[in-house]
Design a protein that fits this description.
D-hydantoinase, alpha/beta, 473 residues, single chain, binds dihydropyrimidine-2,4(1H,3H)-dione, binds zinc ion, TIM Barrel, 12 helices, metal-binding
Length: 473
């Protein structure tokens, strides 16, 4: 069965035009003002008049399988990939986060095994480097050869995932050698530990003290620290979940020196502020993530950085934990914000929140919207033009977007597997009417219609490699 998407307004970072798109199998076959399908055989026609057609969105920073802070993140690839697709995200890049003592290859197989045969959308991984000793390099080379062309390091969470400076240096050296990107969580772990200890000792134990335990200076120091290692090694870097002006400015100082470093922010920082973590009755725990949700004064700066291109991608850092039983691990009478699992579920809502608060308010235009949600990640992580574009030969990952939709976010209707929604009651403008993932209609009118197990791991290319990402399926 072929698919004909008729009369949609196709939006890419540099184009806007009305055309028909013919999908055959898993790929886009033809794009033309009018496509006659009388000789094509069995065709389903989808009317996209008055709707936008975007390349499938890519979320380059999610956690699905995540043993963390004494518990496990709540989604599996069943709920996680369905939630992603309902929102318009057709490719996930998940952080593979082995514990320090784990064998990296075994961990990679474990993470892969959670997605294979279950995910309804496409996926890849950033390989967490949580230790670097004499056994590490050949294993990482093997993982990169399998199409996982980025590493992830944590400067925070020392003891669990965090690396030493020697390990960071060796990771960046190897990344430079292999042409892979080092993605990094930038917060100074020792400063966080000291500040946490002081706050708890002073009886400041509620969720509202999570932000003061990781202030903007702690994040900016992490950015400066990481960028110094990029500068010394020549490796390419990507700073995940940049939350504030201070962190962006720290990175800019290195960008202008020629350091190859790109910045990501995540949707919670663009629409929430730290007063959410001050909500009574321990509700603030729902908004504990790291780096923390900041003071409102940072939001405009982040939006301007998105518009101007200083920040290149909007991801989620989707890390879903229930309120009851999980966020409550830090609840009174033994209240301790350091025991609240860090993370806000958001993989489902990123596109509609960016549309509502970005496009509909005029902060960004439709082209930038597509770039931030799809094309930029495809380019930076070796998937372009197979992903992140709309042209013949590329994967038929498409979002047919209804700009006239109006709705409200609620845990009662969301697809994510958590008992709360951090954006409960938020009004939204626009949502996907239809989503295709490699030609498979996976969403219609907000409902998942795809197939679990349809998703495939995307083999990504390294930086500077001549590999045409569309050459092999
Ligand atoms: N930050 C979070 O908030 N959750 C998961 C890991 C991280 O870095
Ligand atoms: Zn992180
Ligand atoms: Zn430092
Ligand atoms: Zn993360």
């Amino acid at each position: 069965m072929s698919l004909l998407i008729q009369n949609g307004t196709i939006i890419t970072p540099d184009q806007r035009y009305v055309a028909d798109i013919l999908i055959q199998g898993e790929s886009i076959y033809r794009i033309a003002p009018v496509i006659d399908t009388s000789d094509v055989g069995d065709v389903e026609i989808i009317d996209a008049e008055g709707k936008y057609v975007f390349p499938g969105f890519i979320d380059p920073h999610v956690h699905i399988y995540l043993p963390f802070m004494g518990t496990y993140a709540k989604d599996t690839y069943d709920s996680g990939s369905r939630a992603a697709l309902v929102g318009g995200t057709t490719t996930l890049i998940e952080m593979c986060c082995p514990a320090r003592e784990d064998d990296p290859w075994d961990a990679y197989q474990l993470w892969k095994g959670k997605a294979e045969g279950l995910s309804a959308c496409d996926y890849s991984f950033h390989m967490g480097v949580t230790r670097f000793d004499e056994t590490t390099e050949p294993l990482l080379r093997r993982i990169v050869a399998d199409g996982v062309t980025s590493f992830k390091v944590f400067l925070a969470y020392k003891g669990a995932f965090g690396v030493s400076d020697e390990e960071l240096y060796r990771t960046c050296r190897l990344a430079k050698d292999l042409g892979v990107v080092v993605t990094a969580h930038c917060e100074n772990a020792d400063l966080v530990a000291q500040l946490q200890t002081s706050l708890v000792a002073a009886g400041k134990t509620g969720p509202e003290f999570h932000e003061p335990s990781r202030p903007v200076a702690v994040e900016a120091e992490g950015v400066h620290h990481f960028c110094t290692f990029l500068k010394m090694t020549g490796a390419a870097g990507y700073i995940v979940h940049t939350s504030c002006r201070d962190a962006v400015e720290a990175a800019l100082k290195f960008q202008v020196q020629g350091v190859d470093v790109n910045l990501e922010t995540v949707i919670p920082y663009l629409v929430l502020d730290k007063t959410y973590a001050e909500r009574p009755n321990f509700e603030g725990a729902k908004y504990v993530m790291s780096p923390p949700i900041r003071d409102l004064s940072h939001q405009d700066y982040l939006w301007n950085a998105l518009r101007s291109g200083v920040i290149s991608t909007v991801a989620t850092d989707h890390a879903p934990f229930d309120f009851v039983g999980q966020k409550e691990m830090g609840k009174p009478p033994e209240s301790d914000f350091t025991k609240i699992p860090n993370g806000i579920p958001s993989v489902e809502h990123r596109p509609t929140l960016l549309y509502t608060h970005g496009v509909a308010t005029g902060r960004i235009d439709l082209h930038r919207f597509v770039e931030l949600l799809s094309t930029s990640a495809a380019k930076q992580f070796g998937m372009f033009p197979r992903k992140g574009s709309i042209q013949p030969g590329c994967d038929a990952d498409l979002v047919i977007w209804d700009p006239d939709y109006r709705g409200t976010i609620s845990a009662a209707t969301h697809t994510m597997n958590t008992d709360y929604d951090g954006f409960e009651g938020f009004p939204i403008i626009g949502r996907p009417a239809v989503v295709t993932c490699r030609g498979k209609v996976s969403v219609r009118d907000g409902q998942f219609t795809g197939t679990l197990g349809h998703g495939r791991q995307v083999a990504r290319s390294t930086k500077g490699s001549d590999v045409d990402s569309m050459a092999t399926p």
